[in-house]
């Protein structure tokens, strides 16, 4: 009986800890509010990065970032590293950039966990006053 109780408590604790992090898979929505891709956020060298791991529209699975510049020009969107170089600062991650594959533009950004399964992402040019906020929900 103790083993079952300890195992159950361990599993609950594991899920609770995992739900309190920005890392994992997140649903990204288009301007119409429809999930169009899944982004995986991961940590490397104490910084946060994110890449497109799934595209929902079967007709766009082979889409390329035609409007992107530099090294991302004409790269497949599936697998594209869109978030890079975010560093932890209190309860948010900032100091990095995000690429919007829809228009090919790169923005400064910060992300913050606002609920266990809800992530606030703000992309901006210059200062965060001039930008756009998106909310991603954790992928199941």
UniProtKB/TrEMBL annotation:
Read off the Pfam families from this record.
DUF2147
The residue range of the signal peptide is: 1-19
Keywords of the record: Signal
Instruction: Cite the DUF2147 domain residue spans from the record.
Output: 24-138
| Residue ranges of the TM segments | none
Keyword Repeat carried by entry: no
Gene3D superfamilies (alphabetical):
2.40.128.520
Q: Which PANTHER family match?
A: BLL5882 PROTEIN, BLR1215 PROTEIN
Stated name of the protein = DUF2147 domain-containing protein
User: Which species is this UniProt entry from?
Assistant: Polaribacter batillariae
